[in-house]
Amino acid sequence: MKEQTYTLQHGTAPLVLSLPHVGTEIPDALKHLYVDRALAVEDTDWHLEKLYDFAAGMGASVIVPRFSRYVIDLNRPPDNAPMYPGSANTELCPTTFFSGEPLYRDGLKPNVTDVDQRRETYWRPYHDALQGELAHVREKFGYALLWDGHSIRSEIPWLFDGKLPELNLGTASGASCAPTLRAHLANRLASDTKSTHAVDGRFKGGYITRNYGRPDVGIHAVQMEMCQSLYMQETPPFTYDETLAAQIQPTLKQLLQSMLQWTPSGRER
Is 154:228 a contact under the CB 8 Å cutoff? Predict the structure, then answer.
């Protein structure tokens, strides 16, 4: 029997919520390859399925992976092309922590065959399901909206300088969604005076946003990269903070509502 590597909850609205980095499992057969520190999967997008638990009630389809990005990164292209040329990048099968130290024991990094196998076992099923759900939604509504949800520690010198803005909207510099949707969400973000924010700054959207965002065929995708300090403890044991979460959830809900309230014009479908 084939192992289930993700869960997909079908919705009733034209919105699909993808949370590609929330998985925390490393298969038992692979654990011996990693340094001990890696088994704590510290670079997870922790607790986002809980933070976005309101999305299903809004009618969104929700897709969530089971396995850690340390096994394979679902938000990287299958050919492992760098997402941000000139900056530090993690690979399709990451070999370093976000701090730059090695994930694997000496001599045990995945080879080409290993990467191919992981791509077919873990990456391909998630993307087949995501692509299928977007196609279903577009057929039903005439267009589809994709919100790719991420979170990260607010300071990671290996990846970016200084402290990251708290809410980072990425649209591949405007290529992954209609200009009117980008402006609509940017305006909503700007109205939130409690958090710092950026639009197409250091995080412009990864593979999911760039690959599936096809406004020319009616699929509009955005990425939200948010600082974990908004809703949790950024250091071990990475505890979810109910009080903080309750303060940022209304903003996230309003952004998703704004996305659903937006209606594409005829040429944007």
Answer: yes
Report which of 11, 7, 6 is spatially closest to residue 140, judged by C-alpha positions.
11
Question: For every one of its 269 residues, what pLDDT tens digit does the chain have, with 9 covering 90 and above?
Answer: 467 999 999 999 999 999 999 999 999 999 999 999 999 999 999 999 999 999 999 999 999 999 999 999 999 999 987 766 666 567 899 999 999 999 999 999 999 999 999 999 999 999 999 999 999 999 999 999 999 999 999 999 888 888 999 999 999 999 999 999 999 999 999 998 889 999 999 899 999 999 999 999 999 999 999 999 999 999 999 999 999 999 999 999 999 999 999 988 765 55
Tokens 């510290």 sit on residue? 42
Whole-structure pTM value: 0.95
Buried/exposed code over 195-219 (b: 16+ C-beta within 10 A; e: otherwise): eebbbbebbbbbbbbbbbbbbeebb
Residue 49 lies in a domain: yes
What is the dihedral angle through the alpha carbons of 201, 215, 72, 151, rounded to the nearest 10 degrees?
Answer: 40
- Let me know if residue 68 belongs to a domain: yes
DSSP state of 113: H
Q: Which CATH number covers residue 215?
A: 3.40.630.40
Query: Are 219 and 146 spatial neighbours (Cβ–Cβ below 8 Å)?
Result: yes
Task: Tell me which residue range forms the domain holding 162.
Answer: 6-262
Classify residue 122: in a domain, yes or no.
Answer: yes
Which among 261, 207, 226, 181 is positioned nearest to 73, based on CA atoms?
207
Q: What is the SS3 assignment for 17? A: strand
- Number of domains the chain contains: 1
Question: Quick check: bond before 237 cis, omega within 30?
Answer: yes
Q: What is the largest CA-CA distance in the chain?
A: 56
